[in-house]
Design brief:
Blueprint: H1 2-38, H2 42-51, H3 53-69, H4 76-81, H5 84-88, E1 89-93, H6 99-111, E2 114-117, H7 137-143, E3 163-169, H8 177-184, E4 192-198, H9 207-215, E5 219-220, E6 224-226, H10 232-242
Parallel strand pairs: 1-2, 1-3, 3-4, 4-5, 4-6
Helix pairs in contact: 8-9
The structure holds flavin mononucleotide.
Flavin mononucleotide (FMN) is lined by residues 95-101, 129, 131, 138, 169-173, 198-202, 228.
């Protein structure tokens, strides 16, 4: 009986020991979770940091998005950046009846350049262009050196352009006044400006100088007049001469 009691007591002790060791591990787990919330130092913070990568990982794309969103205004940049030679030369042209535009396109082809067309906000009709009519729009504008017809085409960024060919028809021996609107609207600092024009017979006259004076910026070269039918090889020779 005494032996049975000792056995039972031993068994009870063993059970108690097993139960205690079970509690200890539970407590340890509890403690470790408590430690995370109660203590904010050392490795526990590191634990928190290792948990945060998820939100911060989701923040990363945001940052990337922001970077992309920072460039929408320069959307044209990637296009032109694919060909940097293309980007550095621009041909600006105003052409009421298409003749000067044809020459501009030949120059752009030779120079692998971009083209920007100046369009009047109020398009010129054939009545507007009637030089035999002293009260036509073009006659009135040309008779008034302060006239500045509004441009309708979107503004262009001149960033990255080193050379600009600037073309126009001769009206009453000079540049159409809309050309003055254009040159007064931009900063040509650091850009080489090369005027060219077409006409029935008149030379470029004072047009290039007028534009340079009104622009107040840019390195203006002497311009040249071409007939509308000028060949690509004649234009090439002219351009070669400019580069020497
Ligand atoms: C209002 C007006 C005035 C013009 N004045 C002259 C001029 O003084 N001398 C000249 O040789 N041609 C003159 N022209 C002819 C144009 O310069 C010529 O046709 C030019 O090539 C037209 O270019 P565009 O088609 O690009 O507008 C005049 C044309 C217009 C419409």
């Amino acid at each position: 009986m005494k032996r049975l009691f000792v056995l039972l007591l031993t068994a009870a002790l063993l059970l108690a020991l097993v139960a205690c060791s079970g509690n200890t591990s539970e407590n340890t787990e509890e403690n470790s979770s408590i430690t995370v919330t109660d203590e904010t130092t050392g490795s526990d913070e590191t634990l928190q940091n290792t948990e945060t990568p998820e939100p911060s990982a989701s923040a990363e794309p945001e940052t990337e998005q922001n970077t992309e969103e920072a460039f929408p205004e320069t959307e044209t940049t990637p296009e032109t950046d694919t060909d940097s030679a293309h980007k550095s030369v621009l041909v600006v042209v105003f052409s009421a009846t298409g003749t000067t535009k044809g020459v501009a396109e030949k120059i752009a082809k030779i120079e692998n350049a971009d083209i920007y067309e100046i369009k009047a906000a109020q398009e010129y009709t054939s009545a507007d262009l009637n030089w035999n009519d002293s009260s036509s729009r073009s006659t009135k504008e040309q008779n008034d050196p302060s006239s500045r017809p509004e441009i309708g085409s979107e503004r262009i960024s001149l960033e990255g352009y080193e050379t600009i060919y600037i073309g126009f028809p001769i009206w009453w021996g000079e540049e159409p006044r809309i050309m003055d609107t254009f040159v007064e609207s931009y900063d040509f600092d650091g850009i080489t400006m090369i005027p060219f024009c077409t006409s029935s017979s008149s030379g470029i006259g004072r047009s290039g100088k007028n534009l340079a004076e009104n622009a107040k910026s840019g390195n203006w070269l002497e311009g040249k007049r071409f007939p509308g039918s000028v060949s690509e090889s004649d234009l090439e020779s002219w351009i070669d001469g400019l580069n020497q």
